[in-house]
Amino acid sequence: MILNNYNHQSIIKFIGNTLFLMLIFVIFIDPTNTIFHKKDILFILLTGFCFIFYKPDFSKIPHIIAMVLAPLIPWTFSVMKMSNIDIDYVIPVFKSISPVILLLWIRDFDLLRLSRFPVILCCLIMDILFLCILIIPETESAIYLFASIDNDTILMSRRWFLGVEFFCMYLKSTVAMLFPLTYFTHVCVTKGKQTYGAWIAFIIIFFYFMFSGTRSTMLIPFFLLGLCLYISYKNHPKAKWLFYPILFIGGIGFTTLLIALASDTQEASNLIKYGHISSYTSLFENTPAILLTGQGPGAFFYSDGFNQYVLQTEWTYLELVRWFGIFSLFIIGVFFYPLKIMWEHRSTPLTHSLFWAYIAYLVIAGTNPLMLSSTGMIAMLMAYSYSESITKKQI
Questions:
Q1: Are 139 and 154 in contact, with CB atoms under 8 Å apart?
Q2: Residue 169 and residue 156 in contact, taking contact as beta carbons nearer than 8 Å
């Protein structure tokens, strides 16, 4: 009888993990849902399976309610005021936050483990495509036509950073891969824990981030590498004589490069972002009531960055305030909550590394529209999953 029950639970766990792994892979490789068209059905299947076979964690209900009320209340206000709202944009906002329902069962899944294979596979595919273009330049147009135009899945461009041209190609979901990248970086720099498989995975992911298109994702592997080295070897007897000076010099160089990239007035992306900021400032000064009630999801505003009325910009946190006003704190609170748990358990090197990796994600997400999306939600679910795992270990 006990054996049969064990087998039953094992089958349920296997099916649940498989469904979640498939959902993670589809979100990473096809965030726009234009290739496989399976993101919605996998989410529905996983949610339904969890409803039937897993016991919900009702302590997560306040988080779910907060995520729903944050857009719902400002949207209600905007309807009452008969504001100019694009209703076709409102529905995707609510749809994008729907994965928050999975918080009810997140304690039953180890997303850091489940996400490793999908991330490795996605990065390997991107590495192969990138090398194909480098070796056979004629393939660039074909890949661009299929991935960047037909499906809007892989973004490809040639960008100039500090006067140097870079060929970039990347998935929109790249920033959500920080947890697996941090895990393999930690494993590879931790004495006695390296394996050939871990090193191969690290190289595959690290190489992909090198041509991943945005300054933040191209620099983040070096930040994580320095971070993991520091956390792992800060108490080494020779650290103060050798490691600390090297890390200090590297930190100065990294910071200098970061400032130079952020202040590069020749980079088109910077000019657009600075234009957005001035427009937000004018909007909040002229209509301070927005800070309280928000304009509602789907509301337009004029931005000097694009010189036209827009629905959304890359300044995520300012956009949340514009849309949801004070209720944006609900969303920010839900996203930031796992940091509290990880900070309380930072004595473990991996947890300490993932704490700063999640902060890096939240910073990057603040300058890219990546929070209220399936990509942002899977990153948040990873953080909650890991927080639950380290909490259970203390029980």
A1: no
A2: yes
